[in-house]
Give the backbone structure.
Amino acid sequence: MTRNKTDIKFNILLIVLFITLVFSLLSGISLGAVRISLKDTYSTIQSNLFHINAASLSKSTMAIVWNIRIPRVIMGLIVGAGLALCGTVMQTTVNNPISEPYILGISAGATFGATFFIILGLKSMTGIGAFFGSVISTAIVMFIASIGKNITTTSLILSGAVVNALFSAFSNFIISIGANSDSMMTIKFWTMGSLASATWADILLPLFVVLISLIFFMTQYRTMNTMLMGDEVAITLGINLQKYRLVYMLFISMITGVLVAKCGIIGFVGLITPHISRILIGTDHKKIIPLSALLGSLFVLWADILARCLIDKAELPIGIFTSLVGGPFFIYIVIKNQKGGQR
Amino acid sequence: MDLTCKNISYSIKDKQILKNVSLNVSGNKFFTILGPNGCGKTTLLKTIYRVLKPTSGEILLNNKNIENIRLKDSAKEMAVVAQFNEINFDCNVEDIVMLGRSPHISFLQSEKQNDFDIVEDALRDVGMLDKANRSYSSLSGGEKQRVALARAIAQKPSLLLLDEPTNHLDIKYKLEILHIIRELNINVLAVLHDIQLACKFSDCLFLMKGGEIKYEGIPRQTVTESSMKDVYGVNCKISWTDDNQAMIEYI
């Protein structure tokens, strides 16, 4: 049958994207307020990993590369893959093409959880707060959206907007009464996202969570393919979706929580990447999960490079760029869906 | 394969939709449920394919209570083609049919050559092999129905449950699909609307009214002027051809 043809296409895509990703990582390290040549980048990595003395490099260059740029691009890679994974899994779990943590207000819920924990003085536990926040907001969105018996695109967007507005208001309130000098700065961080503060220590938890989730969902591809057929068909194929939905949503909440706690809200990554993957390779989750993750990493890496290179001596929030691309794409998906005549 | 329903009832709040329905499906025959709208045909099928749980009574699959059988194991025995076949994401035809193999493939195992062969055969059975790589949304209603049937065939079931599989199809496709199903030579339990087609293809009929099976047996003995009057409330004249085709003239 035809499996070989699509497999070859998929493998080529993977290889091309992987090479692009390596190239993007290197670009991400060398581009910025201070330009650093690839050679210097390479020497720095070599000297830090293998303790080979790179005498020709200045201390500051080494510090920029090793302590700032590298953690930042790795964080971009993880965040992109994680958000793309969330979007892919969520669209399938809810069986609706517009689902994504940002649009459904789950990121806002995570922000609320994180800021709430900060105000309680539990700064080291913001990740846990964000997790609870996203679980609660997920539950609320799903509850409101499913009031009219089945979940439709309209009910999802509406309940997402409501939850988004509510939780944003809560967290902005908390940040405002928190009233220290840079509280306005913090609002910007939470609502538009930033990778600027990423350090080596910050990377560990997101890396762990995203990697585990990625592996977990790679094993779930057949169940997720079945989800696309709807609940009844899934039961006749021997799978009770309710159980899986709950587990998947918990995973999504966990990823969203951890990522938002570290980088604030970066919107639309999870919306766009699964759609592009499906256009490229079809709906088989065995393929679109790794593909979306790669595309998500690329998207976030380049959005971040733009965020720090576009204006001299100023750093823009990364969310501006993901939203500039994501907003129009969102409109396109909604229109396409309406035209399809269903829902 | 043997499917037995023992006194199943199903009710939502106070409204009783199924009342003590008992039936047996076995012997690789074609069984058809007939009855007016809202008599509980679809509900009966849904309790059998485990989307709804009967309020009382039990369903036995190969003499084992179906509630004690893992969902995945019952999916190896019975496949379903239901009425509603729309999906929100545009899948490839072949991928959809491959899902029929999922009860047979265990966790972490990938599709084998055998599975691809079965999918190919199923697509050939329903005459959709040349459209294996088409996207589902680009298909006509009849083709979508055939894809759903191919997925059920790929499940290699010993019992096929059909809920108005030929709804919305013109007569050519109706006949085609029913012929395909007949030739599978497995147990079939179908809900059909068309009485004449049901008589032509079925070995045994169940006539339902108000959540109960009122008449059952071979078509010639079940579809009679008096049973039609009782179940559907219509007056008609019925004559039978030599090859068991019913000619129904409504008055």
